[in-house]
Design goal:
This protein is an all-alpha fold. The protein has helices at 11-20, 31-36, 40-55, 61-75, 78-90, 95-100, 112-127, 132-141, 145-167, 190-202. It has ten helices and no strands.
Length: 203
């Protein structure tokens, strides 16, 4: 992987900074927050957003994780894919379904709501907007305004996070294997990933 573009705070420093802004100091063990906590106020706001979408949400956790994993795969963000591989399994998503998000349109074991959420995800990633047809399908699948807002915010927020993680070259934590379970990377990013690995080897 490429060298991080911002130095990681030490675990102790990140934990102390997190505690100082009333953030769970365990977050300071992650590479993400060891970068974000260079800017404590920003780290606090991002943490609040993520916690709202993950811990206090109306949107189904399985559906959320399918969307996040699709974003990780489509954007080539190893950190998003690898971290949420574990999180998704924790909320009960089977490995078969996680692997299927790589090519979700060619699998038929999705619910109607999951299929339209994945379609909305692809449209936002490609066009930065959901098409009128897909929005109408989302409104039927997720009739509550809270769910509609959470779906759009989940897609947009993790797309932003994946862009941030890749742009800052935030590394995986020590000892964490990339792209579980099989190390397969998205085809369009294989050359970039191979270059990053080569650059790391010669440093």
């Amino acid at each position: 992987m490429a060298t991080p573009r911002l130095p990681l705070l030490s675990v102790d420093e990140a934990g102390a900074t997190a505690a100082g802004i009333d953030l769970d100091d365990r977050k300071g063990q992650s590479s993400l927050y060891r970068v974000l906590l260079h800017h404590p106020q920003l780290a606090r706001r991002i943490s609040d957003l993520i916690d709202t979408l993950m811990a206090d949400a109306d949107l189904d956790a399985r559906l959320r994780e399918l969307v996040v994993m699709r974003i990780g795969w489509t954007s080539g963000c190893v950190y998003t894919w690898t971290q949420h591989w574990r999180i998704a399994q924790h909320v009960g998503v089977e490995q078969r379904d996680l692997l299927a998000v790589r090519d979700w349109e060619n699998h038929d074991h999705w619910s109607g709501a999951e299929r339209v959420a994945l379609r909305a995800t692809d449209e936002i990633l490609a066009d930065r907007i959901v098409s009128p047809e897909t929005w109408d399908q989302c409104a039927k699948a997720f009739p509550a305004p809270t769910q509609q807002l959470e779906l759009m915010t989940t897609i947009s927020s993790w797309a932003m996070m994946s862009e941030l993680l890749r742009s800052l070259a935030v590394p995986l934590e020590d000892g964490v294997a990339p792209w579980p379970p099989d190390g397969v990377t998205p085809t369009r990013f294989q050359e970039t990933i191979a270059t990053d690995m080569h650059d790391e080897e010669i440093r």
